[in-house]
């Protein structure tokens, strides 16, 4: 599949933003674990909302006819893209209620209600993003429960790293070990989830060129791909090919930038060191997650490739 | 009604005439234009509703060339319709034809991703998804002679490898062909339940043979003359 930059920015930024919101709201219900001050909650809430908004705006760049984007809310019953759009838009009034109630010191009931709704909607939005891909049977490597799991874990892990960075600022490095432990666990879980996905993806399990042609008794080879050459829609959208060596290197690059480096940085923080390192590592990790998202598209094979001579997808 | 096509891979010669006829009719049809990109440059391409690809099946000398035309198969389980967030993609209740409402499409490509057959193509010039309409602007046109109320690809096929009809009618030509020749659904295991069917090449050993005794030359000449004048 063709990796579109707008979709990569969208999923990474909104994943991180909604992940930060989900963690902050969840922690607000668990003051015994990590007690966040009102200032910290507002900082995290606004930053998360801004990142999610930037991501959602980036997603509209992917549309060929954005004038009709408002219609995307109309098929909630069947379309995960529609569900994502509905959840993302419903999130804003709820986040407004939550952050407004915190900012103006309104009653605890309103704060809790806003936080609970924001928590649920942020997680649902990220889950729906994953399900957009996981629901496509025509792309066997996406058609797995691991995909929404990865989207959720990566979103929460990048959100946790953001929260750690915020607390590094507000608490001048003395943020306690609980938030660092939480970030470490989420970063490692996200890496493990992705490793599981890479492992699962190793063997093709989709249809073959034989079932595509209905000729199952002999080997089939493409002789002639008909009109179009290399530049029609099917070619550019589905026939994106990159060699396996580059793909493997990029997987390791993700492991380095998206897992190993942030884990080292957070470990250094917990040792009371590297306060400035975290500001350097945050964009590096988000870039690593961008690499992961690029790979997510580049490695997926649409079954239409079978008609163009691929033996399996 | 469940309208669709039967495509005979035994007789298709891969001449691309259906591709051209489709492009010609639909360029000015309800879902047109089918935009061409850099049509006069080195690498011309463009939107098409129908593409024909050719394959070699089996190993020489036991190999066979198979041509496979591919347009929208108007699936019963049309996931291109269910994934569409705007409601632009729809499957008609009355005849099962899958269409795109050009006024509602936002060009997100998700339906094209959901289609396993590559039947949908985004038109860069208008920013909306385009696909085979089964010549919906032709098959119901009562100003055309009844014989002409068929998709352009079917009418033009020089080897009669394409048939159009109602799959809900067990006695229609298409239903009978599917029954008699073992009509197949490509990638049936994905469960999209395509309406269009493909007739596999006939096994050579079972090619139709004359089972009567040889007729006298005079009678054969007369039959040949009859066939030549009025097939």
TrEMBL record, chain A:
GO cellular component annotations of the record: dimethyl sulfoxide reductase complex; plasma membrane
Transmembrane segments: 7-29, 41-64, 85-109, 115-136, 148-167, 179-200, 250-269, 275-291
GO molecular function: dimethyl sulfoxide reductase activity
Pfam families: DmsC
Keyword terms, alphabetized: Membrane, Transmembrane, Transmembrane helix
GO BP term (any one): anaerobic electron transport chain
Transmembrane helix among keywords: yes
InterPro entries: DmsC
Protein's UniProt keywords contain Protein transport: no
Protein's name according to its UniProt entry: DMSO reductase
Organism this protein belongs to: Spiribacter salilacus
From TrEMBL, chain B:
InterPro entries in the cross-refs: 4Fe4S_Fe-S-bd, 4Fe4S_Fe_S_CS, ET_IronSulfur_Cluster-Binding
SUPFAM superfamilies for this protein: 4Fe-4S ferredoxins
Native source organism of the sequence: Spiribacter salilacus
Keyword Amino-acid biosynthesis attached: no
Residue stretches making up the 4Fe-4S ferredoxin-type domain: 3-34, 62-94, 96-125
The name this protein goes by in its record: 4Fe-4S dicluster domain-containing protein
GO molecular function, one term: metal ion binding
Keyword annotations of the record: 4Fe-4S, Iron, Iron-sulfur, Metal-binding
Pfam families membership: Fer4_11, Fer4_4
């Amino acid at each position: 599949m063709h990796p579109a930059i707008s979709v990569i920015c969208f999923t990474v930024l909104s994943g991180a933003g909604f992940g930060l919101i989900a963690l902050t709201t969840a922690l607000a219900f668990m003051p015994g674990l990590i007690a966040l001050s009102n200032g910290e909650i507002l900082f995290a809430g606004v930053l998360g909302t801004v990142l999610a908004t930037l991501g959602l705006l980036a997603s509209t760049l992917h549309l060929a006819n954005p004038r009709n984007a408002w219609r995307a809310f109309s098929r909630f019953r069947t379309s995960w893209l529609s569900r994502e759009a509905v959840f993302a838009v419903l999130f804003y009034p709820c986040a407004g209620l939550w952050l407004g109630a915190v900012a103006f010191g309104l009653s605890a009931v309103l704060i809790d209600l806003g936080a609970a709704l924001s928590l649920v909607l942020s997680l649902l939005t990220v889950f729906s993003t994953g399900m957009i891909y996981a629901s496509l049977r025509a792309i066997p490597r996406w058609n797995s429960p691991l995909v929404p799991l990865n989207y959720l874990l990566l979103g929460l892990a990048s959100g946790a790293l953001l929260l750690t960075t915020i607390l590094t600022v507000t608490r001048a490095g003395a943020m306690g070990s609980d938030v660092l432990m939480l970030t470490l666990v989420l970063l490692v879980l996200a890496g493990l989830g992705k490793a599981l996905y890479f492992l699962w993806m190793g063997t093709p399990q989709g249809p073959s060129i034989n079932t595509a042609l209905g000729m199952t008794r002999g080997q089939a080879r493409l002789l002639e791909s008909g009109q179009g050459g290399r530049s029609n829609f099917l070619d550019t959208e589905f026939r994106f090919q990159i060699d396996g060596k580059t793909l493997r290197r990029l997987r390791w690059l993700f492991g380095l930038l998206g897992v190993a480096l942030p884990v080292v940085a957070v470990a250094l923080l917990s040792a009371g060191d590297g306060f400035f390192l975290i500001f350097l590592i945050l964009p590096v990790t988000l870039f690593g997650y961008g690499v992961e998202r690029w790979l997510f598209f580049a490695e997926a094979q649409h079954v239409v490739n079978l008609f163009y001579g691929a033996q399996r997808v | 009604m469940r309208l669709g096509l039967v495509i005979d891979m035994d007789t298709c010669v891969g001449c691309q005439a259906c591709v051209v006829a489709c492009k010609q009719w639909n360029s000015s049809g309800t879902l047109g234009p089918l935009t061409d990109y850099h049509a006069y440059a080195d690498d011309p391409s463009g939107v098409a509703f129908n593409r024909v690809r050719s394959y070699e099946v089996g190993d020489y000398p036991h190999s066979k060339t198979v041509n496979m035309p591919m347009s929208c198969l108007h699936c019963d389980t049309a996931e291109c319709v269910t994934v569409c967030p705007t409601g632009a993609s729809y499957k008609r209740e009355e005849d099962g034809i899958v269409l795109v409402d050009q006024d509602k499409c936002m060009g997100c490509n998700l339906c094209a991703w959901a289609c396993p057959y590559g039947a949908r193509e985004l038109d860069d010039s208008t920013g909306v998804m385009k696909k085979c309409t089964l010549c919906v602007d032709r098959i119901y046109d009562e100003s055309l002679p009844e014989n002409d109320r068929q998709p352009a690809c079917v009418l033009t096929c020089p080897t009669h490898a394409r048939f159009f009809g109602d799959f809900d009618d067990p006695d229609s030509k298409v239903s009978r062909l599917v029954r008699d020749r073992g009509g197949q659904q490509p990638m049936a295991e994905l469960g999209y339940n395509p309406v269009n069917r493909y007739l596999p090449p006939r096994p050579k050993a079972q090619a139709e043979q004359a089972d009567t005794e040889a007729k006298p030359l005079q009678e054969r000449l007369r039959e040949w003359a009859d066939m030549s004048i009025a097939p």
